[in-house]
Inverse folding.
């Protein structure tokens, strides 16, 4: 398998605060990526001015025909994603700011990761999400927004920084690498599973729930605190040998975003995550399992 390294350095902090003047930039493209049930209705009920609506299932994932081959949210074809970005007016020079209403833990971090994986660098997620805008007294808009289209975004044929199911399984059994499962601990432990068919985790995977990235105000913890927390789990493993996953490759991106904010930029994403692994008749660990 050809190794697809990320090989980019962040040009700016991956997080932005609601009062940052960059929101007013002429080259700024704002994207509302709330996702979930009735997300478009919630967008129409109130969003930041000139924000483009992005749907997790329609825009940020391919149609699922078999979750055992790619999980519940497989990545869309990269050329299709490039065309979508063009329709949103996104070019390599655009400053893209993304938000959702889940502290970045849902579609905002996923879209951030996807853009980063094709090499986009002028890219940030709103720290605290829509709730931060509400607390700051920002007036929401109810009008749909149609951006000026551009050419398809130039891509190189793949998303960098991913691993497949085989590599994830091998890494979980390799002391020189680490696989981090960011789901809530009861799901990791196999005590409950509200979404997928079987509870448990990949044997050898560590657990670091993504909710630990956030403070009491649902903003990311300071970078130095995050860095210490991640290194407590990662230990001496090299950044490029760290693999992060969740249930379906969405909330894992929240931890990848937190890692980037903390200066740890090379970890990879196992997109298929538990939704793929648990459907493949592979070894599983957790309650009453070996």
């Amino acid at each position: 398998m050809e190794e697809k390294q990320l090989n980019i350095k962040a040009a700016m902090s991956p997080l932005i605060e609601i009062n940052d003047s960059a929101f007013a930039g002429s080259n700024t493209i704002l994207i509302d990526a709330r996702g979930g049930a009735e997300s478009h209705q919630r967008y129409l009920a109130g969003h930041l001015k000139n924000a483009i609506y992005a749907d997790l299932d329609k825009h940020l994932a391919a149609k699922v025909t078999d979750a055992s081959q790619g999980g519940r949210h497989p990545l869309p074809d990269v050329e299709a994603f490039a065309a979508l970005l063009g329709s949103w007016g996104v070019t390599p020079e655009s400053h893209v700011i993304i938000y959702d209403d889940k502290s970045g833990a849902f579609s905002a971090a996923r879209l951030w990761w996807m853009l980063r994986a094709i090499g986009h660098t002028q890219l940030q997620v709103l720290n605290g999400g829509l709730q931060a805008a509400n607390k700051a007294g920002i007036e929401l808009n109810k009008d749909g927004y149609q951006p000026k289209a551009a050419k398809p975004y130039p891509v190189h044929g793949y998303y960098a920084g991913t691993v497949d199911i085989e590599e994830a399984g091998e890494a979980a059994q390799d002391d020189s690498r680490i696989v981090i499962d960011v789901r809530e601990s009861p799901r990791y432990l196999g005590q409950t599973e509200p979404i997928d068919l079987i509870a448990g985790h990949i044997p050898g995977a560590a657990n670091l729930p993504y909710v630990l990235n956030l403070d009491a105000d649902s903003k990311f913890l300071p970078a130095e605190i995050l860095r210490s927390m991640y290194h407590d789990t990662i230990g001496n493993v090299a950044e490029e040998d760290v693999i992060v996953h969740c249930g379906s490759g969405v909330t894992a991106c929240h931890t990848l975003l937190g890692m980037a904010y903390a200066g740890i930029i090379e970890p990879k994403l196992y997109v298929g995550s538990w939704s793929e692994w648990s459907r493949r008749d592979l070894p599983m660990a957790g309650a009453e399992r070996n």
